[in-house]
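Our consortium's second objective concerns turning raw sequence data into structural hypotheses that experimental partners can test. To show how far this objective has progressed, the report includes one record in full. It was chosen at random from the queue rather than selected for favorable results. The single chain below, 279 residues long, was entered without modification.
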Amino acid sequence: MDIKLSESFLAYKNYKYLKLSSLVLLIAFVAYLAHDPGRAPNGGTWFGYTLGVISAGIVIFLAWFGVKKRQFATGVDLLKGWLSAHVYLGIVVIFLSLFHSGFQLGLNLHSLLWTLVTLTVVSGMYGVFCYVRYPSVLTGSRQGLTRAEILLELSELDLQAREVAIGLGDDINEVLLKAAETTQVGGSIGKMLEIDPANCPTKLALAFVDSASVTSEDQEAALRKLQGVLTRKSELLRRLRTYVRAATLVRLWLYFHVPLSIGALVALVAHVVAVFFYW
């Protein structure tokens, strides 16, 4: 998936949902200015209840997208439409809920709901960035190679390096052995976010080989070939680490966005119960 394809959900059917969401927001804003409840605007007026019902419906729709996107029979184009609506309506619901409450926010359940919805939408904006940016990284960083193919080629390069270095002395062979046995991709979250770690054993091995000196033309040729092998290995490691970093960032986003979405739904139910039974 390239960036243009990833961005197409934002421009779905000539920005259909951007236009629809803008129209809804404009109508709500004009209605809010024209509405005169005879007191401070709040969620207890007919206008406030109307916007509250609409906002609640949008929140439920946004949450339903998490279920809908797992229904593969939906089709790519229709799913793209759902995602487009998910993005634009998520922004709209922040303002609709403010109009619903008459901008009366404080230390109460209603404001908690608005805060959770807003945090969910803001985290969703980062998710949009993930959809647009990281799918291209996840494919482009590997340049047509699958993760398994990269790992296989890395193993082959380690064997090739050992064969080339047979006549280059014990020091070089020890460095290559350490690079083959201790080079790691991933691990802790910090390591999964690193693309070019300074202490990478393969990177250190390449630096050691670059500074090594030999006494014969055959050794010089072997040294140059070994440099090429280690350079290729370093390039593959960088691609693989770029992939792992992108996948980790997307996963970390979900760890925030999904719990916030669930929290917003729970707060919505509590808000509705409080209004109809205790208000």
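The partners drew two points from this record. Residues 1-6 have pLDDT under 50 and may be disordered. DSSP finds ten helices and no strands in the chain. Both points have been shared with the crystallography group to help prioritize constructs.
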